[in-house]
Amino acid sequence: MNFSEIIVSLVLFILILFFLLKKNNKKIEQTNSYNYEKEVTFQDKQIQMPSSIGLWLPKDIEDLSKRNLRGIVHKIFDSYKIFDYKKMDLNELNKKEWHSWQVSMLLMLFKKDEEYFIVNQEEIFHDFLLNSNENDIKSFIHTILRKYKKQVDISSKKDKLCKEYIWTNKEISILFYFLANYKNFKI
Fold first, then answer.
1. Is residue 38 scored above 70 in pLDDT?
2. Most buried in the list 108, 134, 154, 184, measured by CB within 10 Å?
3. What's the half-sphere exposure (Cβ side, CA atoms, 13 Å) at 148?
4. 34-43, 107-116, 154-163: least confidently modelled range
């Protein structure tokens, strides 16, 4: 073997070694990435339970007795059931058809730590809710609370709040589902 053949052989050997090492590094990276993703999946972070602390509602609603509040919420729920949201597609659920006065009543029930018992939830609620986990529902409620605090003027009178159709069918569904189930959630 002459000198040039040795150099060519050495270069080929180095190239082959380089490609093998590179290929092996990719396998290691994929393995590490895979393990990391598995780890993240197993360590699902528990979303904190929504709180009514700092939630201010219109004075007329704050002053309602629990009995009167429950009666009003029951009437709102009767209206909710008539529309049969379970059968709607998600686009229809995103329509804004509920006003701030109604939402204020539902939030007041939560603020007074009152659960709203609903029989046969499978027949009433849309599949997106029934298939949601506890973390999803908590996250939805956090979003609703932020929207309420940001967009609702609690100093407004009932007449004005009844004209604020800023709440979707989906948000009302989430609120009712939450009120029916939140006492079973982890804190």
1. no
2. 108
3. 27
4. 34-43
